[in-house]
Amino acid sequence: DIIAHAEEIIRFLHTTPWTHPMVASALHRAVYHRLNCDDPFYALKQASEEVSLKTLQSVSGRMRSFRDFVIASVIGNMFDYGVKDHEVSSDFVSYFDQEFAKGLAVDDTDRILPLCSDIIYFTDNCGEIVFDQALISWLVAHGSRITLVVRDRPILNDATMEDALRLGLEKQATRVYTTGAGVEHGIRFDLMSDELLLALDQCSLIISKGMANYESLREEQGLPPVAYLLAAKCDPIAEELGVKRGDKLALLRNA
Question: Quick check: 34 and 5 in contact, CB under 8 A?
Fold first, then answer.
């Protein structure tokens, strides 16, 4: 029984010192193996991309400034079926309008923009990268150099190289890398390629999308400035960041 097997794994993982993304990754690898399926979220990812493309087409006319494109990108982060108790609206255009009007609970965009010369951009969810693409287009048009990083293999609804290439993101980014970590949620520096590690040493800013990437990076020392673009979709992360669940953030942290 797959559910019983997953519960047994969770009991074991609670005894490890691993981060939340590492625990989630181990659980997903085990369940995917039992399911004999490399990408059980494939259909959901395709559907979320289609909805995001239609939504962006409807709302793109109102986005002009860097802040506007950041807000849209963070709203994209809310299009996530992988978080318990986080609901995704079936009318995403109306949802986008509502959230766009709310703006950001933490808004460091004025401090982030001057750092945007050479960016490492860690993506998160599949539908979300449609809105990331709009932000990346704005950044490139204003002189930014972008190294885009996607998941190495499918896990949850996270974006992979296949998803990035389907949208043509390789034509906008200077380079597209994977995290190099296989079926892994979040970021693992011990499994990164030498090329990506070198790019991290040389960049002016890391843009980190979503909660798993935030959890992976928050304890790392010696990083360049990190712009965390995320929605606080669960209570523990919201409490840690001092915001309410559902709030949107563009939070800059310097090492």
Answer: yes
